[in-house]
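Input record (one chain):
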Amino acid sequence: MAITKKQLKNKTKKVDSGTERYFIEKGFGENTINVYLGIIKRFKNCDISELIEVLRKTKIRGTQTVVISAMKHFYMMKNMSKEIEVLNNFKKNPNEEKSYTIYHHDKILRLTDFEKETDKEKREWKALFRFLYTSGLRVGELNNIEILTNKTIRIFGKGKKYRVCFYSKKSYDACKNIIGKYTGKTIRLKCKEILGQDYTPHNLRRSYATYLLKNGANPKMVQKTMGHADIKTTYRYFHNTIEELEEEYNKFFKG
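The corresponding structure, as predicted from the sequence alone:
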């Protein structure tokens, strides 16, 4: 029998602090933790068959993947091996090609031109977004920065791993007073307020990778600075518009 939204709501209880602590210790970012906690809060008291029913009705593969990942972590914490096995055997929907919003490099530099900004608060925020763009950092990594040199920083990032990134010292110096003072949610809202409604910190990160790859950067270098475990993840950020692909094709085949 199908589970109704009302039944699902009645099954939902507050997620204990131990669950949040588990994800923090695993090195997950703030946004990922919030998403996972929301999923666990919704499904923690559901039978595995009810969860599978919801997954089957979910059309988007990416959503299925996130739900499965969150619940597998929850089941691992509770030593629920049978439930984990069921999720491992669940057949997700076919992959869909993802479409990301990528911002033009020159436009980002213009919008984040903090040096010409006269308002102190806006100057700091613009410098922060310039810093995020030129380093490729995740918002959740802002609190885990160690300055190494005038060109390099060390990050304690996703998966509890350290990596070395390059950065703009000018932009860092102009925004360092606000780093660590705001939540990820506030930073994302400020990004829309300062740069425009279509802008998000994570798309700045994607634009950073895309700009480097399109301009001949070594994919392994981009992988390392982005903190990707798999090079395939890095190549997802190599975006081309139809017009760009046609232009490239016409270099080889004319007429």
